[in-house]
From TrEMBL:
Gene Ontology process terms (BP): photoreceptor cell maintenance
Organism expressing this protein natively: Rhynochetos jubatus (kagu)
Protein name: NXNL1 protein
Segments forming domain Thioredoxin: 1-142
Phylogenetic placement of the source organism: Eukaryota, Metazoa, Chordata, Craniata, Vertebrata
One Pfam family per UniProt: Thioredoxin_8
């Protein structure tokens, strides 16, 4: 997928950070379904759809809703009239969204490549850049997060449920009771050791 953005720049939402090197882009986009959201903060239809898309994205990627974020990345392709309008819109959207910088001619290239004539439009792509859905707006409105499973299967993503050891340790640590259990385990071990010492001291 990074090939689509080779030589291009993506902006991290609400930050000035640029995601521009092939290595950074590869890490951000590898083995994920990519949504290209063509929209505008001023378009009435987009104003109705954008909150729904925001909730859709959060329900699949935010730790409040899911134990592990879905393999999903979204790039906002703006039709806003000014940079201030684009920034104001993005401030109301999830921090994990990426965006094409305002005024970048690459936006027009993407519109032509994916035949986007009106907004809102959500183009769904496989990691290799192949199109899964030309415009998923209606599907997202109708099915909500359930439609991601179909895209995931179509994209043939590598299942990330096979956790690396360090990932598993991080995942285990997220349990609210985990620090308490670990502390209790340490106390139990100390008590055991103390009892053994006392028994050793008492024996002739």
């Amino acid at each position: 997928m990074a090939a689509l953005f080779t030589g291009k720049v993506l902006m991290a939402n609400r930050e000035q950070d640029e995601v521009e090197t092939e290595r950074e882009l590869g890490r951000a986009l590898e083995n994920k379904v990519l949504l290209l959201y063509f929209g505008s903060g001023q378009c009435p239809r987009c104003r109705r759809f954008s909150p729904l898309l925001r909730d859709f994205f959060l329900q699949l990627t935010d730790e409040f809703y899911v134990e592990r974020a879905s393999q999903l990345v979204l790039v906002y392709v703006s039709r806003d009239e000014t940079e201030e309008q684009q920034s104001a819109f993005l401030r109301t959207m999830p921090k994990r969204w990426l965006a094409i910088p305002f005024g970048d001619a690459f936006k027009r290239e993407l519109e032509l490549r994916f035949a986007v004539s009106e907004v809102p439009a959500v183009v769904v792509l496989k990691p290799n850049g192949d199109v899964i859905v030309g415009n998923a707006v209606e599907e997202i409105q109708r099915l909500g997060p359930a439609c991601f499973r179909n895209w995931q299967e179509a994209a043939e993503l590598v299942d990330r449920n096979f956790l690396l050891a360090e990932d598993f340790e991080k995942w285990r640590g997220r349990s609210i009771t985990d620090p308490i259990r670990r502390l209790k385990y340490k106390l139990d071990k100390k008590t055991e050791a103390k009892e053994r010492q006392e028994e050793g001291a008492e024996s002739p």
